[in-house]
Write a structure and sequence with these properties.
Blueprint lengths: L1 H9 L1 H27 L5 H5 L40 E7 L5 E2 L5 E2 L1 H7 L10 E5 L2 H10 L8 E5 L11 H9 L13 H8 L1 H10 L7 E5 L32 E4 L4 H4 L4 H6 L9 E5 H20 L6 H8 L2 H4 L6 E4 L12 H4 L1 H20 L3
Helix pairs in contact: 1-2, 6-7, 8-11, 11-12
Length: 379
Amino acid sequence: MAKLFRSLARSSARRWIYISLLILGLVCYVYVEIERLDMGSETPAEVRHPAHRKKRVPRNETDANGQPLPKRSWWGGPEEPKPANPLDITIVTMYLRLGPVKRADGTVTEEKDYLEWMRTWGWLTNTVVAYFDDDEMLAAFKNIRKSQPADKTILVRVNRTDLSSFDDLEDVRKLFADPEYPKFEPQTVNAEWSCATNAKYDILQRVLDEGHVKTETLAWLDIGLFKPLLKETVHKKNAPFTLELPDKFNASKIGLSEVGPGDKISKLRPWEIIQKDLVWTAGGFVLGTKEKMQEFITSYKAAQDELLEHDMISADMHTISAIYTPQMVKRGPPEAKAYICRDGWFGIRGTVTKYGCLAFLCKEAAETRAKARMKAQGL
Ligand SMILES: *[C@@H]1O[C@H](CO)[C@@H](O)[C@H](O)[C@H]1NC(C)=O
Ligand SMILES: *[C@@H]1O[C@H](CO)[C@@H](O)[C@H](O)[C@H]1NC(C)=O
Ligand SMILES: *[C@@H]1O[C@H](CO)[C@@H](O)[C@H](O)[C@H]1NC(C)=O
């Protein structure tokens, strides 16, 4: 032994080879021991006869609650979770089966129209939480979302009687039946429609309460808002798209799309907003952090209750504009920023450019960043 160490000391290169071999041998021994213990209570005799060896039990891929365990990396340790994209947005929507809806321009929106518009959701890569009061439409939507990874879609069946906005349905019907009440299709004529638009905020509250939002920000998105993408001149057929926060989005504000002059409308009384159908912003896309969205929901529900107490209600757009009138703004709703888009932007013509403005800007923000990343990689 002493001789061995003496010879080891003599040649430093040889010494390192011997030490390495020694360590390697130790590692192999420890590994075999661990494997043996892993096999359970086998005696060494059984180990010597491979035929008696128990089959190795595959790793259980689910935890005690049946939830999938995190994937293991190549060396067997837990895989690092991907860092969350701080610009990511959880998208919330709802479809209630209201039947055909008459529009201001005399057209009628039917279920088949929604089914067609819904196709755009198959291309949306964000996490989507969608509520339906009907199994058939839920199944259709589920089928459309199949093109995205399963964990990107959360579908919830609701009963509209569970949505507090529908508690007012009878009162709203009576109000709209009054010949003196303003008549704008559908928001001051179709009571179900009016309640359904207000119910967006019952749903947003549920989404937050039920903990479905894992991102910092969330947005309401009307189920038909992206219908312009069905035109191939606007969007490449079946191409995936993503919604991300626009550059310099102020997290202290609620993001909306401007459709009317805010400076004038914010000076009106809530009744004038409903009576003259004058609104500052659209309601089809509402963006905010969880914290600001909670504040906005609270302001919205308070405004909705106050309007109904005074026998007035219209669509969500009108309630939003009412929040920022002198009478109601003193309650301190979160500040809102209304984004403005011009006709023809994004290759889209008509009022839909304005109504969908912020949603299209979020789509464009993600596209611009993706292009910049490609360029940086020399692609
Ligand atoms: C994995 O764990 C679940 C939940 O504890 C259990 O029901 C299941 O039988 C386990 N599977 C295996 C292969 O051990
Ligand atoms: C919805 O709720 C109402 C009242 O609670 C009930 O009568 C109805 O059957 C429910 N509908 C569904 C589809 O669950
Ligand atoms: C973001 O909005 C808040 C609230 O309106 C405001 O106080 C703050 O100055 C804004 N921040 C920036 C960077 O504009």
